[in-house]
């Protein structure tokens, strides 16, 4: 019995060991599997897809005979035989198109020949899918380009063979859509809401590089020739389409590459965004609901991409508004930028802007929808820099899709041009050498480099993670079209990429197999004329968050995605609410929908509902500018700052207008002084009891218009109870130490009359930034701090700032410069932008807090009338930034003063970290008795000059001799170009962080820095106002800014429409979108002031450079 028990014990022990081992092995297997990429590449032998878009260069077909040779082909995904499996169609330029039937299990059969869709010998480009004849079967529209054979586009009508091998009949001619305009892509959409699918065709007229602006302007004035325009075809529902391009107001010249359709302004009618190459501006075509479109691009976007390629539209931040991503060709690496990107000529850039072709920059644009303005038009902000999506090299397709099913739409970008056709060294080579070669020989001398594709995971907070390598989809080659769809019906989105000169790729998504997240897929069973449900909108509401999609198939570049709505929903087992809205207004609402299923949505279940308000937030502001008759426009004078310093990061002559708010006649209402630029007189406005502002005429403003007003403040100088006016002179127009920069003091004589006092101020020939009154010596009158902004034409040298002691008497107004005596650090402290008198340490003496460009947050402690720099002691030594805005208040209600500080923000070309700072050096590098500047940044631990060989050698010509080629300069570090020794001898400033912050006073002589949320980082904060906007008892912050004076190779900072940060009374802030707050302030805001209004209200007045005043009343 005992032996039997021992055997049983041994058996159980062995079994336990095996179970434990098996469990460990399974755990190990799971871990190894989870460490694999999210996608797995499916080999051609397994899938049966061998398509390769091969280009054969020859004497007649090469880059120099056909500039568009490397644009590649597209890919379309759709179920052509209605068997529930998504099939795949590829387009090829010099090879046959291919149609692959999905057999299940990611295996496909080539049925091209039997289907009749090979497309003969035409140079095929894009492909899109739709139901052209309203029979419930997917048709194929193929775009054609080239110059050798016919350029007629193709329409393959599905012969409707359910479950079998699909066949098609080419019918473009008979349907009226055999467009010959050199097409790149098309899109089916119902622009007139008559229930069927109309067609927009994007055309890229054959042209030579270079003179496109002149051609565009000529066509704009005289009319665009028919063969140079995109086309709009209306589906008449009888197997015929009618060309209504002219009637729809769409005869426009552009080099069109990408199209996106969406209801951007939420009026129920589909709009269009068309990407145009080179200088021809993009179209933002708003549907007028009457069969016509209006191009509103200049109004709706603040800037766009220059070489606009493919695009996609989606709500990437889950706020119910459609955003837009467009691809350009800015490399990510320092080397490729400097080898391949030409210097942008400032005069050319300015000419583009002057002629109404918009601000265009060579970088990807991620246009965040900020909501509709008062005219019902959507406004957009480019946030590509902040999200890390701006620079993906020569990019073609961009698509939004939730690849990991976490509820946030990710991004995939295809890349690569077969030869580096922008290589600077190649095109700068001696002409006589190139003339010896024919076009084919020249083409083959062009260098080439394979470029990886990018994938970006959406983090859900206006940030993305570059995750292509980790996910296993960073193919290195030359990719053009891409499409997504669930090819194996497992609940996640697979990818198909069309490559040039290499086999196409299928990536299997393993999200569902690995049970990472759940999904919901919706197949729309629409009405008879639109069975796939194009234009249908769907909202998913769950756990307080909303996802939104609108069904459109043309996405990315020359490609078309599956006609299924796919939602990732994270770990949720069910969705609380699904709302479906059809284009005719019928609606269906589903509750408690189970996840992990394909759900059929039937049009017949939908009903007409009442009109739904999309933006439910009650506005907190009302624009009353016109109502109160404020019509002042600041007019910036033209001045070329870069003539004096070629490598300036931005202009330094555009810091106005000055703005001061105060009650000049003690009637209980605030009045306004607004300053002019050089050559423009300032204006004084009196607020009447009826709320109307009337200009107070005074010759003194006119007589002083030869100075530039950059800041102003009202305060009682002489204790007579009247608000006097101090105006700071600034700018960069005059030389250093010029009387042009002398500040001015105007004494209020009562009844709206002011008189300039020319003796009260000391000599102050410094280009200034701000003037802040405060009684620093506790003697009962108001003294002044005056900030120095710059040493003219010597950026970034530190100018002199001033403390002016008020020594006025009953008979004389007098300010004395006591800077050297009590605050000698101010003689060269830095390029001050803002200052505040604040009793930081609660000792009853006003201390001085200062910020500036390239400056740390600076604390000058008031030791009973003497100022000691305790910046390092208080912990601010590492806080250098481009600080533009500052306010202070006890935001956390603990009895001391906290600060909100506005920096450059995180949405600019210039980025910085503690390990890799952004720097500037100043030295006479070429020993010509003139100081030079150089900006630098880091890439992978190496410091490089920001600017390229062309503009760098314009400042220091010897660089051209030191580096004979662009390739040599592109590989050179900063020290290679300027030498380590000379850099050490230079004046140097560096920034570790450009984030705007909340600075919490700890009450013990130290502060804690908290970065503001990402929405607050989209642009520089120049000015701020404190008020309890939402009336919850906690102080909120309204901010505004932007920086329009960037050098032309750096996209201007223009993403802000003003911002509201709602405070929680504990020092925390939450930023609100403009559509939530009603705050919509477009422009480069230099000053914002709170103002008391007639009727007891409170307003905020915004002063903008080269723009109108704007007054918002707080509701």
UniProtKB/TrEMBL annotation:
Keywords: Signal. Pfam families: FG-GAP_3, UnbV_ASPIC. Residues 533-599 form the ASPIC/UnbV domain. It comes from the Bacteria. The keyword Heme does not apply. This is Repeat domain-containing protein. It comes from Kriegella aquimaris.
